[in-house]
Amino acid sequence: MPEKAKRGFASDNNAGIHPEVLKAILEANTGHVIGYGDDIYTEEAMHIIKEHFGQDIDVYFVFNGTGANVLGMKAVTESYNSIICAETSHINVDECGAPEKFTGCKLLPVPTENGKITVEQIKYHMHGIDFEHHSQPKVISTTQATELGTVYSLNEIMEITQFAHENNMLVHMDGARLSNAVVSLNTNFKEITNDAGIDILSFGLTKNGGMNSEAVTFFNKELSENFKYYRKQGMQLASKMRFMAVQFTTLLRNELWLKNARHANQMAQILAEKVADIPQVTITQKVEANGVFAIIPKEIISRLQEKFFFYIWNEDRSEVRWMTSFDTTEEDIDEFIDQLKSLL
Prior knowledge:
Elements: H1 19-27, H2 40-53, E1 58-62, H3 65-74, E2 81-86, H4 90-93, H5 98-103, E3 106-110, H6 119-122, E4 136-143, H7 154-166, E5 170-175, H8 178-185, H9 189-192, E6 200-204, E7 214-218, H10 227-233, H11 242-252, H12 256-276, E8 282-283, E9 291-295, H13 301-307, E10 311-314, E11 319-323, H14 330-343
Parallel strand pairs: 2-3, 2-4, 4-5, 5-6
Antiparallel strand pairs: 1-7, 6-7, 8-9, 9-11, 10-11
């Protein structure tokens, strides 16, 4: 048997599957059901998702966040369009050019110090409209919570969606950590997405106790008219979809998603409070979800990583990222702080 892995602070992707989700997958592994989503498990999951996000929506399960982001935007763009996003966004930094390859669209990144973009920044790219020599802006992609652990307020989201719709554009939201943002804002899924004017949502569970299931959600059904074909072409159509569906059912029923996200956020707050008392550590971003960004002495980073793995965010600044998860414990944090102090 391999040695039991130690919890670290590298990513909420590194956490395991919540035991209740794993149990639900096992329980669904009985008998035969029709494949490709025409089964009672998927039907139940769709019902619960609509309870949270609104009844008049279209939802499609895919395997991962990149697939959700890319195919969601592919469904509403032409190759001559452009997509405006934060320079730190996952679609710009961590998807290996997949958005450009599969949509054909040009990404227009916006410089940002906190991971969020504003209407004033978006306006910089609003030129060359109806001019054939320029790609035509079509989608504004936001991330909630952002890659820097910050959270858009409801007003900030609505300002972007209003501007987009006034200019014949659409707004996509990368919701890989949407649950953490909802907890941070003390709101609900529908208010921060459907009611706020979001058009397409990539709703992620993997970082909140799921295994491999994300949902591309269209709040205007006209936008999803051909999505089932894009999903198949994009190799994101699951044959045994029941095992993806039960992950949504389990996490969204009885507020397990809320419990998990609330715990992860609380652990980030505790971690931030403890490192803030250390003079050699400077926290660089507001801690609004489950991430802590900090500058620490460069010479201790590799030694600290040997005990608790985490990622360097900006090597030039000696800035690191510490992520907490649904299974992070206060004991993990205390051990980490003790190790950090000993190295300093």
